[in-house]
Specification:
Elements: E1 3-12, E2 15-24, E3 35-40, E4 52-54, H1 56-64, E5 68-69, H2 71-80, H3 91-94, H4 98-138
Parallel strand pairs: 1-5
Antiparallel strand pairs: 1-2, 2-3, 3-4
Length: 140
């Protein structure tokens, strides 16, 4: 039987609270579990002592039996010094795409072309309004 140490969500809508549980991988996220080994309350400040509670002895025992922690639980265990977690690295994410760069280079050239007619229109607009104002002044 494959076993994971994972989070089981509790709490109401928009107010999450998680139990850290040891469960069979086939069991539903919030369903049947073997043992509760901690809790996590994301609504508390990060430096609050009750944000993450772990039963370290039981977790070490389950890890020795072959239980695999999920990514989030592995972060908690790494912070406690129980498990060493390798940081994830996605070098492809940092490489910019070529298409947006080309579009950015072309866009300023197009904007400068669009700005010139807009400036001409601004200059013409006040001259068109002036005769209308003069006509209003003459009427009363």
């Amino acid at each position: 039987m494959a076993v994971k140490i994972r989070l089981a969500r509790g709490g109401s809508k928009k107010r999450p609270y998680y139990r850290i549980v040891v469960a069979d991988i086939r069991a539903p996220r919030d369903g049947k579990y073997i043992e509760r080994v901690g809790s996590y309350n994301p609504l508390l400040p990060k430096d609050h002592e009750d944000r993450i509670k772990l039963d370290i002895d039981r977790i070490k025992e389950w890890l020795s039996k072959g239980a695999k922690p999920t990514d989030r639980v592995a972060r908690f265990l790494d912070a406690e010094g129980i498990l060493k977690r390798e940081p994830r690295n996605n070098p492809q994410k940092a490489i910019p795409k070529k298409e947006p760069e080309e579009a950015k280079e072309e866009a300023p050239a197009e904007e400068s072309k669009e700005e010139a007619p807009a400036e001409e229109a601004k200059e013409e607009a006040p001259s068109e309004e002036a005769p209308a104002e003069e006509a209003k002044e003459d009427a009363p």
